[in-house]
Amino acid sequence: MKLLQTAGLANLLRKICAPRKLPQSAPYCFDHGCTGKASGFATPRLVYRPRGSFCHTARNARQDQDLTISWRGGRASKQLAIVSTNIDLDQQHDDIMYPQVLPFLLVHAGCVAAIWSGVSWQAILICVLLYWLRMFAITAGYHRYFSHRAYSTSRTFQFILAFLAQSSAQKSVLWWATKHRHHHLHSDTEQDVHSPRHKGLVYSHVSWIFYRQHDATDLAKVSDFASYPELMWLHRFEVLPAVAVAGLCFLIAGWPGLVVGFLWSTVLLYHATFCINSLAHVHGRKRYVTGDDSRNNWLLALFTMGEGWHNNHHAYQSSAQQGFRWWEIDVTYYALVALSWFGIVWDLKVPPTQVLRNEQRLGSRVIRRTAEQLAGRFNPEYIALAIKSLVRESELSVRDALLLLQHRADLRLPSMPTREQLLSEAQNMFAKTRSLDDIVDLARELLVESVGLLLVVPPPLTSASPKS
Ligand SMILES: [Zn+2]
Ligand SMILES: [Zn+2]
């Protein structure tokens, strides 16, 4: 009690125990110069509600109502005032939507029907053409345009991109963009919708799509596109483009056209796209410190038209170019450049020289996530126990230990890593960055906070203690 009344310690305790400020509502990526305003993003009114304050159906009803009021008769430029209902953070509905799994499985099973339909050269040609055409629509449409606004285009080409992208049967462009913007905002944290680090490879590759909590579209996160009636129409009839293209394949080449031309290419597109969510966060090299597990993988880049340069992309998300070196093949970007010669797309964003040279300073969010990873390499409970035994054996009090812990970075308390040790560990763990000192300082601060908390508040007894 006497200890707690000490002014210095009280300040330290206040710092340790003070509730953390909630992060500002930021539906888009703001790191590395990718600001919402600069990219033409709207700033929607976001009202976060406690978890579970709406049931699933009520949430959808509320959203539809807001949307109808907003775009009825309105121009495309009119921005929506959509109330976000914090859908992505709702863990209440973590069950699988089995009815939606069925068509997905049927598309896969349908590929086997080639045994009966036969395989014609015409159907194989359709399969190849549809794969590359729709892969372009996925990377240039779903991803670089609708999720990141990495370039500008006309309303007509915007619709063509959306239609072609949706013909790959990966849900609506608005759904895709909301999930992807959410992914960048929470990459490889517990809130990420598809993080191999937290949920495993299979979940991040495919299973996450079928969980009810990921089904709804938080239109506040795509208010810049939800104001276009034609995109909302595609959102409501999301399978229509896929059905239309499937019908066209059947008309051109009969059953082989449908099975080989459409189904085979659709399944290949599924898994090529999904590999970016799963494998591109597991296998490959990290050129940039991004605070997440994104990697550059040349093999993935080849069959996804450039999407495999995923670490580059996480480092500078608003860029239309994802291969940052001349040898990093990025076919989507080459196609976009070719389209820009004809005035079909324009204002292609590219990374600034500082980013290309990896000389940029990191954003505060990336620094914090990276510092957390560094601090996580050391066990605060072990350090606290070592300090406690030092306190028992020496003249030092817990208060002295705490104050020294906080103010003397050079002091060698048992098991507490020095700044040099943290720096050396950081150099081993992370790619080159100008912000390494900031990361190390913050990691030490976090470690001191954790150890300090354990020193003044003993950990609760675990029920797992062995019974005598
Ligand atoms: Zn990613
Ligand atoms: Zn992205």
Walkthrough of the structure:
This protein has 468 residues and is mainly α. It folds into 2 domains: 27-86 and 363-456, no CATH class; 98-356, no CATH class. Helices cover 53% and strands 1% of the residues. The chain has helices at 7-17, 56-71, 98-110, 114-117, 121-147, 155-166, 173-185, 196-199, 201-205, 223-226, 229-236, 240-277, 298-303, 310-315, 331-341, 353-356, 364-375, 380-393, 398-407, 419-429, 436-456, and strands at residues 152-153, 345-346. Strands 1-2 form a two-stranded antiparallel ribbon. Helix 5 (121-147) crosses helix 12 (240-277). It is elongated, with a radius of gyration of 26 Å. The protein starts with 6 loop residues before the first helix and ends in a 12-residue tail after the last helix. Bound molecules: zinc ion (2 copies). Residues 183, 187, 281, 294, 310, 314 line the site of one zinc ion.
Summarize the structure.
The chain is mainly α. The protein has 2 domains: 27-86 and 363-456, no CATH class; 98-356, no CATH class. It contains 21 helices and 2 strands.
Labels describing this entry:
single chain; 468 residues; mainly alpha; 2 domains; two-stranded antiparallel sheet; 21 helices; 2 strands; disordered N terminus; binds zinc ion
**Which structural class fits the helix and strand makeup?**
mainly alpha
Give the C-alpha Rg.
26 Å
Bound molecules: zinc ion
- Oligomerization: single chain
> How many domains make up the coordinates?
2
- The order of strands across the largest sheet is 1-2
Helical content, roughly? Answer: 40-55%
Strand count, sense and barrel status of the largest sheet are: 2 strands, antiparallel
Counted by DSSP, the helix tally is: 21
* String of helices and strands: HHHHHEHHHHHHHHHHEHHHHHH
Gross morphology: elongated
Ends: how far apart?
33 Å
Which stretches of 5+ consecutive residues score pLDDT under 50? Answer: 1-89, 463-468
Strand content: under 5%
What average pLDDT do the residues reach?
80
